[in-house]
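On clarity, I found the account of how folds are encoded harder to follow than it need be. Since the whole study asks how a given chain folds, the encoding of that fold should be made plain. The format is easy to grasp once an entry is in front of the reader. For illustration, here is how one protein appears when written out as sequence plus structure tokens.
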Amino acid sequence: MSRMQGLLLLVFAKYFHLPFLRGVQTETTRTGLGGYWGNKGGVSARMSVFGHTICFLNCHLPAHMENSDQRMEDFESILQQQQFEGQAATGVLDHDVVFWFGDLNFRIDDLEMQVVKSAIDNNKYSMLWEKDQLNMAKDSETVLEGFQEGPLKFSPTYKFDVGTNTYDTSGKKRKPAWTDRILWRLRATAPAGAALNAGKRGSISGLTSGTKVTQHCYRSHMEYIVSDHKPVSSIFTLQFPYKVDVPLVTLIVEDEWNSIADATAVFKVAPNYSRSSWDWIGLYKVGFKHHKDYVGYVWAKQEEADFQRQEHQVTFTEEELPKGSGDFILGYYSNNMSTIVGVTEPFQVIISHCFLDVRTIMYTLYFWA
């Protein structure tokens, strides 16, 4: 998660992908009020996914029709300031794949309000695309080279009267515009003819190494009326050859824990994994959102006698076990890498706990005294 005033970025992953998400880092850049206020700017999250670097960048750029150049300047400033640690992909555009999205605030130039609304009413969006500031900037701004966007086949998402689907009727009467956008970029483009035209549904783009990004849909959501913007969403498939397909730690656990004695797990570490005495194994409910959402945990300490062993066992005490039954997952957290590097498949915990009601015993003793 990465957040700033007016900006929030959340990245979710399926549990079985977690061991292959490495090097997670976040950055924030304020551009409001000359860099002092976080109402404008960018928040990002980067990671290595199966050995390929990916960066998600959420931006809120300056508003108003006349500030197109300022929007580009702020975007370039965000790219320059956001630098990550490590030898590979230190900048946003150094990543294999970049997803850039947010309230980018680009407007529709030249056309009068009546012309824009008429085009919207008659689904003639193509005449508006040609005057869209972001589309025009892609033809002239070097920093936008390689960025792709699916066809805008939905009505402009700004500006609406809050609580309605009616474009702005206030005294300002803002001209409708596609302010809310989702774009992507690959670090290198495929050879000529390998990618489909971006204007076609299910547009595809790919690296020469075989990486492909396929956009399946790109749409707005008119049913949301709590803002003067309409949210947009997109679904992508990212395909690439695995560079990393073996977890650093393999966890083995029984299908069910029916008693406290069953609460054990075995783990194996890869030869290239550097263990820490602060590594731990967490017990998580299926659907957990963060590595600290564990029900209980045990330390995966490295003893001197462990160096020659291939397998290591840990045991959960009764205090570390859930009070009720359910489906759970074990995850191995690496202190050095600050991420989960091994997980199990879901398994069931069905353990009955015995509790001693001290208050009842005290009352009974008092009664018979």
The first helix runs from residue 68 to 81. Confidence is low (pLDDT under 50) at residues 190-201, 355-369. The domain at 249-349 is CATH 2.60.40.2840 (Immunoglobulin-like).
